[in-house]
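Page 37, continued from 36.
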């Protein structure tokens, strides 16, 4: 286990009753989470080790299970994946998705390579296959590129305050305790709060479910608008006709104003 992973695990404050600390063979991920040959190669080449750190259940952390028509949360699995060498961002995202798909429970996934990445993804019942669990939306992930592998660095002044605040907010005790679903959603809200803080400069994880949902929507809007701005700028740089350049610049200013408004909602 890397020092950075150990730092985050310590911040989670997992009770001893929930600890598992078992190595998971990669073949389980290959058999359950790799639908294509390229996925199997990615898992084989990029993953050094998988550790099942904890099983968060009602009888191990005192938080009730959750059931409704869409999902059943009886347990949250905490997994740590040590990566081998540098993994491209697209491959890292794919690995996270494959790991989430391979486990029938919601997973708090810790991935350590040159970057430390924390990833979460809700699960729901499959609509066309009884008893099968699938991802409910894209994983929510964040990488801590500025935190070094020195376990003491999280307290060091060189680490941005937003990332220190994020790590310190991950404690199980600081998440909602009504159900395992609410607890898991609390961690997702922490990820969204860090993403928002990187745009706005202030980390604020304490939100209501409604505020967290609004922040998620604002982040999605910001990403969409930033992509549109990038596309318009590239298009304007290639445009030769003056009238079309003026039109593109006016559109660009409008989208920039929409982006500024979306950021205010973070």
């Amino acid at each position: 286990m890397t020092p950075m992973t150990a730092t985050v695990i310590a911040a989670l404050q997992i009770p001893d009753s929930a600890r598992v600390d078992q190595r998971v063979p990669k073949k389980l991920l290959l058999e359950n989470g790799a639908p294509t040959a390229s996925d199997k190669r990615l898992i084989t080449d990029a993953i050094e080790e998988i550790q099942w750190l904890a099983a968060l259940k009602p009888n191990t952390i005192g938080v009730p299970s959750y059931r409704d028509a869409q999902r059943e949360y009886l347990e949250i699995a905490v997994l740590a994946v040590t990566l081998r060498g540098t993994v491209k961002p697209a491959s890292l995202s794919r690995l996270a998705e494959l790991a989430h798909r391979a486990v029938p429970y919601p997973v708090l996934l810790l991935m350590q390579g040159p970057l430390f990445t924390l990833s979460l993804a809700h699960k729901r019942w499959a609509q066309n296959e009884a008893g099968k669990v699938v991802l409910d939306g894209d994983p929510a992930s964040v990488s801590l590129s500025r935190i070094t592998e020195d376990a003491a660095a999280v307290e060091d002044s060189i680490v941005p305050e937003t990332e220190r605040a994020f790590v310190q907010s991950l404690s199980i005790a600081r998440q909602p305790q009504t159900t395992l679903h609410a607890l898991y959603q609390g961690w997702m809200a922490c990820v969204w709060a860090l993403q928002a803080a990187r745009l706005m400069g202030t980390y604020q994880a304490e939100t209501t479910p409604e505020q967290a949902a609004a922040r998620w929507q604002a982040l999605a809007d910001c990403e969409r608008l930033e992509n549109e701005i990038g596309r318009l700028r590239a298009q304007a740089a290639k445009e030769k006709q003056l009238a079309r350049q003026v039109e593109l610049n006016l559109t660009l200013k409008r989208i920039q104003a929409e982006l500024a408004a979306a950021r205010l909602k973070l």
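The chain is about 50% helix and 20% strand. Flag for discussion at group meeting. The two ends are 34 Å apart (CA to CA).
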